[in-house]
Amino acid sequence: MNQYYLAIDIGASSGRHMLAWMEGGKMLLSEVYRFANGMKKNDGHLCWDTEALFQEILTGLKKCREIGKIPAYMGIDTWGVDYVLMDAKDRILGRTYGYRDSRTNGMDEKVYEIISPEDLYGRTGIQKQIFNTIYQLMAVKEREPEHMREAKSMLMIPDYFHFLLTGVKKMEYTNATTGQLVNAETADWDTGLIERLGYNREMFADLEMPGTLVGNFTDEVQKAAGFDCQVILPATHDTASAVLAVPANHDQAIYISSGTWSLMGIERQEADCSMASMKANFTNEGGYQHRYRYLKNIMGLWMIQSVKKELQENYSFAELCDRASQETISSIVNCNHESFLAPASMIEAVQQYCRGSGQQIPETAGELAAVIYNSLARCYGDTITEIEELTGRKYETVYIVGGGANAEYLNQLTAKYTGKRVSAGPTEATAIGNIIVQMLYAREFADLAEARSVVARSFEIKEFPKED
Predict the structure, then answer these.
(1) Do 171 and 208 touch, CB atoms closer than 8 A?
(2) What interhelical angle do 346-356 and 365-391 show, nearest 10?
(3) Cα dihedral 364/370/373/377 (nearest 10)
């Protein structure tokens, strides 16, 4: 009998239940259930529908029962920075805001009245993003102070779903670090910072590391799902899980976790909280076994996803890649420009950027895709240059994991703009990384190095030679 492991990987646009098991020395992976996700307008604010998402989680669990593949272990990962505040009766206070909501506008200045950007980076090592939890909580303090006072606990989104499954509250480390409130030296909440900001210290529970047992399903969840299961904390931040699935066991690996966002960087044992690192806008997010994910957030496939939704023709991503490859337009945009974060029209935002910078304006689907893909690859190249300057090291290979590993045209462009060999795959890196932690808990592997070796021989990896 196979022992099954379940990763529930919830991204900004969709979620999936992925079952895994070991067979013949390889990890096998099967999608059981998939569902849509997205922020929804709630009284003018962009919010997550946590009730609907939890019902989708339960539906996927029931599907496991229906097909007779009941997991012994499971864990949930999601995006970072977003959270719920809960009162003494474990009821959510207010709305569950999404990171693209505009209520954080101006909250950075409120934070900087208390601590300078330089001191903040020196303590946390986290790059400034206006949606970081630190700014979201300032918005609560300023606009909904009663919720800050009444909160007895704060849980990041995957921690909240684990709580609904088990009745046990645990705050996982990797996701917590994305919020800019964890001290990079102690790998724990920066209580001095939290108190200076006037946030309710009571709601910050102790941090737990990936590989920690949360608990078993509650009686109610067991009845709904039709089985019991042990819930294990994976690296609940999706990028932290994806990095675990990078099929390389050496420290010469630059990775890109390529999806809605492109997270590009390296793994390191110590954080770099220097001003040079801050100026380059790199972040030191927590990783498995207290590794640091030293990386840069790049707008990623969000841009092409948004354009695809706006186009009248129903192109697949493969078709957009093909059309882009046939174009000669040379226009380049800054993928990290704020105008691309949440525009009313991504097409108009790209066109306006090109117009404003005196470049050819893309009109067709192929031209729009070509501008976006070339701009992303150019950004990857610039980022590698920065990493090599900051670390004083040279890197030979770029490992692309996640859904973007399927974009062959973008992979070819990445090899061109970076001058590095590109290794693309596995595509389901986040789910695989989630499962790796569960399997390590169950002692399927001796250590992470063995797990990564198994990943390398279990999943398709495509190679793209560097272009001189």
Answers:
(1) yes
(2) 70
(3) -160
Asked whether the beta carbons of 7 and 74 are under 8 A apart, the reply is yes
CB distance 414 to 377 below 8 Å: yes
CA distance 294 to 291: 9
Query: Do 432 and 454 meet the contact criterion of CB atoms below 8 Å apart?
Result: no
- What does the alpha-carbon distance between residue 362 and residue 353 come to, in Å, rounded to a whole number? 10
Side chain identity at residue 258, one-letter code: S
State yes or no: is 251 an active-site residue.
no
How high is the pLDDT of residue 370? Answer: 98
Q: What is the pLDDT of residues 296-330, one digit of tens each?
A: 989 889 999 999 999 999 999 999 999 999 999 99
pLDDT tens digits, one per residue of 399-446: 999 989 999 999 999 999 999 999 999 999 999 999 999 999 999 999
Pairing of strands 292-298, 262-268: antiparallel
Per DSSP, the three-state class of 164 is: helix
The 10s digit of each residue's pLDDT in 171-219 is: 999 999 999 999 999 999 999 999 999 999 999 999 999 999 999 999 9
Cα 455 from Cα 302, distance rounded (Å): 27
CA-based torsion, 46, 51, 56, 60: positive or negative: positive
Helix, strand or coil for residue 35? strand
Q: Which amino acid is at 79?
A: W
From the list 77, 82, 159, 238, the catalytic residue is 238
DSSP 91: P
User: In the Cβ-directed half-sphere of 157, how many Cα atoms lie within 13 Å?
Assistant: 30
DSSP 406: G
Rounded Cα gap, residues 194 and 204, in angstroms: 9
Ramachandran bin of 126, using left for φ above 0, alpha for ψ from -120 to 50, beta for the remaining angles: beta
- Domains in the chain with CATH codes: 4-232 (3.30.420.40), 248-425 (3.30.420.40)
Rounded Cα gap, residues 87 and 368, in angstroms: 47
| CA 384 centroid distance within chain | 20
Helix, strand, coil percentages in the chain from 3-state DSSP, rounded to 5: 40, 20, 35
The verdict on pTM exceeding 0.90 is: yes
CA dihedral 126, 255, 81, 391 (to 10 degrees): 0
CA distances (Å), origin 164, targets 33, 328, 374: 19, 52, 43
Pairwise CA distance, residues 430 & 335, whole Å: 23
State the DSSP H helix or E strand holding residue 72, giving kind and residue range, or none if neither: strand 71-77
Identify the burial level of 169 via C-beta atoms within 10 angstroms of its C-beta, where 0-12 means exposed, 13-18 middle and 19 or more buried. middle
